[in-house]
């Protein structure tokens, strides 16, 4: 293994992953969502874009083998292994407005700010944060296309493994929502592991 | 009626709608998707944001009565009347990359550029175009959450009516995709009508 990074609860971290390397995102204690953004390191105007992924994949479900497409409709990473099988890529990062509008809280930690702060390490300062992929988030859609946010299906040690198809910078936040089922009402750590790839 | 604007095929137009006024988007010949963006006229850093709408509505389906929420999770407009009942708000605007990557076409008209150009009338020049609502777009989801883009259900004269809850600027593009079922393989006009509201 080349590098290991623990992401504490209510925080974000960023890592550089070179073309051909693999990144594991591990749910250490289980039931913890990881908000994820990914930039092309050579041109940070290109980034993984869920809205374009939904078009290129003709799906709102992520599965093993799926490329993670950019705003220029090119694959930057690929989901090569997934021990859970339920993730989200249509929901926003929680942000200041989420806690202010819905809970009246002015200073709650939030994924938007965690990710923006984590990206500073690589001097990536997007005017707008791209929409996240929310690994392990469990939105259950009904027949009317309404959905309910349930507790994640991930158990301790479950993970997704992503292969870099370009040199990328990835930021991940331990989703900081502790007042809803999204993380089982408790925010716990995630672990990032980078390896040389297979 | 206060104002009427015809949007020719392959083009975009923008209009100002004052708080309390209503905007009708009319599918003149039927089967024509309209890509739609909407900005708070007093602070164009706030705009209708489909990713935040999906969170606030707990749904990926739009229905009469739904507010159109902003990136600050506040309602800017409301869908007050809908004669079709099938629209999209998880798909991107077609853009240069869509036609270049998927069809090898360098110069195809596209909604991204149509909307950016239409917004110039009000000197709105976002660094990134917000995701659109795609009125009349008919994405049919299956039980695996994969979907297929079908021809719109809208017939000639079908419409949606939106009430402005703030002073807004709206831009709409006649979706310029003529090589897929999304507009029935043919791009036709849309009409905008602004009235004083009820």
From TrEMBL, chains A, B:
Record keywords: Methyltransferase, Transferase
Any one GO molecular-function label of the UniProt entry: methyltransferase activity
Boundaries of every DUF1989 domain copy: 7-169
Annotated InterPro entries: DUF1989
GO biological process assignments: methylation
Name used for this protein in its record: Aminomethyltransferase
Taxonomic source organism: Paludifilum halophilum
